[in-house]
Input
Amino acid sequence: MKKNPTIVFPEPKKAIIEELNMPVPGVGQVLIKSSRTMISIGTEMTAFSGEFPPDSSWEKFFSCPYYPGYNNIGTVVELGPGVDKSMLGKKLATGGKHAAYVLEDICEKASADALKAAGKIGFFEVTEELNDNHSVFFTIPEIVMNGIRNSKVQWGECAVVYGLGLLGQFAVRFCRKCGAAPVFAVDVSADRLKYLPKDSAVIGINPKEQDLVDTIKKHNHGRMADLVFEVTGNAALMEKELSTLREKGRLLLLSSPKKKIVFDFQDHCAWPSYTIIGCHNFSHPTHPQAENPWTIKRHVELFFDMVASGELDIERLISRKLDYNKAPEVYQDLLEDRSKDMGIIFNWKDAK
Output
């Protein structure tokens, strides 16, 4: 019987390729042959390490055995009952796992509300001219786009982005697309700073080597920042990050810290009158609304349009392209040091 190679974390700090039975599409489902998947380094490495508080959401959703992945590009190769024949051969972006073959619900009953309740994002058609290595990023930018809109960043505002993993890299780029300037990009990794776009209005800062407040004032006419994006996932850093904000500035929480945040709201929110904005991916509207039409689907479409037009240089954000069978080594590498990597893409073309 044909098998389905799949990446799994059978226990913390261990990754293997498991030969699972080939999935069979049910009513309203399609079988997708994966072309590319991409590691979401923050989420997947938290799951891989197993280092999260007991009884937390992390433990609920990411306990081992865990099948990682939610950035998948592939082609429909088999249809379940009730699926229109026109779906056969279509290229789709889905939240499918790191596996040679994945199933996707495409029936009408898989409504936006049901997907949200199940923690799923749905599927999106990908045009043939898009490079699979670029379109596989799709989940990351749509998360950031939602954060950018909720932050209400405006033309001419000064923004600070803390944490330059993929979410932070896209936050910097989208802030500039909205006209923010200057945009300060902060990370203790010199390697991550090298992935920043070549843009005179983007100023990289390593806080180990430069004073944050002095640098921001120097390049912002003596003023503090209008808004800060927290993208480090480090619960201990939030209060320190607020030191760069002006009075009545805004803090946008784009990360998912794995530890509880201890926070003095009197001194670090009420007194300086800061606005703190939470922005999980599933705060997207489930359906287009007159006052907010920006669903996950529409943001994914926008990302694909920007890639197709050349507005985004995605190749710059790829650090490794590997065959899927290298996955166990990759996760061990990242456990040792994940500061040098950005987009890590697995190729499933030769998976049988």
